Amino acid sequence: MTEIVNSPAGEEVSIEELTEVVGARVRSVRSRRGLTRKNLAFHSDVSERYLAQLERGTANVSLALLSRIAKALGVRIGSLLPEQEESCIKYPPLGELIETFTPEAQEKAFQLLRNAFSPGQGAYRGIALIGLRGGGKSTLGERLAKHFQVPFIRMQNVIAQLAGMDMGELISLTGQGNYRRLELQALQQTITDYRHVVLETGGSLISEAETFRVLRENFYTVWVRALPEDHMNRVIEQGDMRPMAGNQQAMDDLKLILDEREADYRLANFEILTSGQTIEQSLEVLIKQCAPYLQGG
Asked: Distance (Å, rounded) from C-alpha 237 to C-alpha 221?
């Protein structure tokens, strides 16, 4: 007999359905954070085997273990549980209108609303490049900054300076909570220190809503993206051979990360696909698009 429970939204769901929802949310948050199961297991003191079962929806959900997992992920435990979804649209006619749109029309409406209500270009501190490693942020960012004669800043370097240790040590020793606090601090320091700048951000910055909001309010954001195969090949070419271990599994994980982050990446002001393009071709597009926000820097 299937056991039925009430979700926080007041709906009746089976234990199996509840377990699947919790597992999917853990997997989603982990992917958006860019964490491996091994790293999450270490910081939560929960076995990799249990995490794998949890994400597949086959584990017995324990609130004690889930609390440790949430802490290691840097989120509230409630964000891993089903909850009543309330519309963020406080003007009902707008919500009713949007619901009648096709997905394509909704995307166009979003672009129009963003352009109409986003800060004017005079408020921007420069260009912020977002996206997964291997898209081309570093190469294009350096050249874009050189073209406009403005500083090129890697936010991970600022974070490492604030922490007094390299990124690997910071994340493995102090966990997500401390890293995310330093990430926001590094962003705020960059905003204070520079009038115009090309800023390269970490791929998982978008997983922290407040930090991503501050970034978008102060910078013209560009999603530098590539096809999954190009992301992986470029990382390998940079000397990181970790993706070669269990290649198919690594590719599946990469595609999952891209899927989980795509909605947030699409909040950028502009996106550029670097696959199938030379560096010079991509740079030419960026120079034209970013000129209003870097000229006079």
From this structure: 26
Of 117, 287, 118, 131, the closest CA to residue 217 belongs to 118
Round to whole Å and give the CA distance between 262 and 279: 23
Q: What fold, for 118-294?
A: Rossmann fold (3.40.50)
Torsion (CA) 292, 293, 295, 296 in degrees, nearest 10: 120
Every domain of the chain and the residues it spans? 4-80, 118-294
Three-state secondary-structure class, residue 68: helix
| 296 confidence band (pLDDT: 50, 70, 90) | low
Structure tokens that stand for 178 in this block: 């401390």
CA-CA distances (angstroms) from residue 190 to 110, 154, 158, 226?
29, 10, 8, 27
pTM of the shown model: 0.72
Residue 271, strand partner residues: 223
The values of phi and psi at residue 221, to 5°, are: -95, 140
Q: Are strands 4-6 and 12-14 parallel, antiparallel or unpaired?
A: antiparallel
E strand or H helix that includes residue 130? strand 126-130
At residue 220, φ and ψ (nearest 5 deg) are: -80, 115
Q: What is the CATH number of domain 4-80?
A: 1.10.260.40
Q: What is the pLDDT of residues 188-207, one digit of tens each?
A: 999 999 989 999 999 989 98
Phi, psi of 13 (to 5 degrees): -135, 155
Over residues 259-295, the pLDDT tens digits come to: 888 989 999 999 999 999 999 999 999 999 999 999 7
Q: Tokens for 96?
A: 């009713």
| 47, amino acid identity | S
DSSP state of 123: G
Residues in the chain, overall count: 297
